[in-house]
Write a structure and sequence with these properties.
Blueprint lengths: L1 H42 L3 E3 L11 H16 L5 H24 L3 E3 L4 H21 L8
Antiparallel strand pairs: 1-2
Helix pairs in contact: 1-2, 1-4, 3-4
């Protein structure tokens, strides 16, 4: 619940109404990408979530819904310059490791056959996929 409220509030402050109106399709894309990746890994026994209302594929509902505003934030600050895009994705992916670590400490998330290094790689792949699909849909402008 805390992560959902934080994500929603941050996206409203950071992206604003204009950002929400422009990038909401990327939020939907992020929901699909995270659902496909995370639910498959939960089913394979890589990691598990605890607490919260279970939703689709073993993901807690509010955690899953927090992906939508996070996708909007990800797209809103995606650099126009191509040379800055990979560093941006790497930094954001690394920041999400702090959230994951906090979830582990609080007992909300548990690695079974998984590591933070795997999470970093998965975060990078997922974010690149979300941003590429956002560009393919015409929501994100191609880089310079």
């Amino acid at each position: 619940m805390i992560w959902f409220i934080f994500s929603l509030g941050l996206s409203i402050l950071a992206a604003g109404k204009k950002g929400w109106l422009q990038f909401w399709p990327v939020g939907l894309v992020a929901l699909v990408v995270v659902y496909v990746l995370d639910s498959a890994l939960v089913d394979l026994g890589a990691f598990s979530y605890h607490y919260g209302v279970p939703a689709l594929g073993g993901l807690p509902l509010l955690y899953f819904l927090s992906i939508f505003p996070n996708g909007i934030i990800l797209a809103r600050f995606y650099p126009l310059r191509r040379r800055l895009r990979l560093p941006y994705v790497l930094v954001v992916a690394a920041l999400f490791l702090f959230v994951e670590r906090f979830m582990i400490i609080t007992g909300s998330f548990r690695h079974l056959h998984w590591t933070l290094e795997y999470s970093l790689v998965l975060n990078v792949i997922g974010m690149i996929l979300v941003l590429w699909l956002g560009e393919w849909l015409g929501v994100i402008k191609p880089g310079e």
